[in-house]
């Protein structure tokens, strides 16, 4: 297992970074929030460049690179939900350019003739209000459902860029079940969320370093103060640690390593702890500027914090890791 990017992966990272910088600048993110601008153009670019074809587990590291860069840019498209939540649960269902979301709980399936009937309400479905397809996880299996057959309502969340919805299923009849492995799909979703959080945290650090490198107090650049350096260093260490675990999780998925379940939990837990450090230090080092709507810091902070609350918090995943270690000892 190689723990460094290959030359091709470094080239891929640089290419993705250039594309994201052009297609998803801070002005677009602010335009989506302030003026309701359409986030579809960057999605069409991502799809046209083949980024939506990174669906095989063997492409996990390349997908991870894309996800980190999109997290860094606070990407407003449905890429995260489509690629890390829907696609692993319903491979080959969506047509090129179509979007997807996953409903992990709240829905039941009962057998009815030659099919099943879905009932219930799935809450906190990422991009559930704008997806073309939904992958519905039930005790009876995973069912792909066209979005036109459900009732989805976007709910307000503190990250104004994210789309989170409640999706209601009332007598939705389905015939086909997905053959995907829900456990593997869950690991991909956790790893993808962790990488998105890492990217957002990197953006917070970049903005913070820019601020402390120009802001003056007592006639000196505040970045020269030892206490400020310590906080910035803590942010950097937390990000690098979370990034290492997130990419390790992607590697275990790419190589079908049996450690991937624990690796995904470790990645999500570490990313959650990372955002806590980065959020607190980033806000403090920005001072009052960090609380203003005009400062773009808010978007990265909110994306990182939202990632912590979705798919289980750091505490939940730490508990899972402890259970795994205890089982091994026994």
From TrEMBL:
Domain Acyl-CoA dehydrogenase/oxidase C-terminal span(s) in chain numbering? 192-324
What does the record give as cofactor? FAD
The stretch of residues making up the signal peptide is none
Q: Which InterPro entries match?
A: AcylCo_DH-like_C, AcylCo_DH/oxidase_C, AcylCoA_DH/ox_N_sf, AcylCoA_DH/oxidase_NM_dom_sf
Keywords in alphabetical order, please.
FAD, Flavoprotein, Oxidoreductase
Coiled-coil portions:
none
Q: Does the keyword Oxidoreductase apply?
A: yes
User: Mind telling me which residue stretches traverse the membrane in this protein?
Assistant: none
**Keyword Flavoprotein attached:** yes
PANTHER family of this UniProt entry?
ACYL-COA DEHYDROGENASE (PTHR43884), ACYL-COA DEHYDROGENASE FADE28 (PTHR43884:SF20)
Q: Which family does it belong to?
A: Belongs to the acyl-CoA dehydrogenase family.
The protein's name = Acyl-CoA dehydrogenase
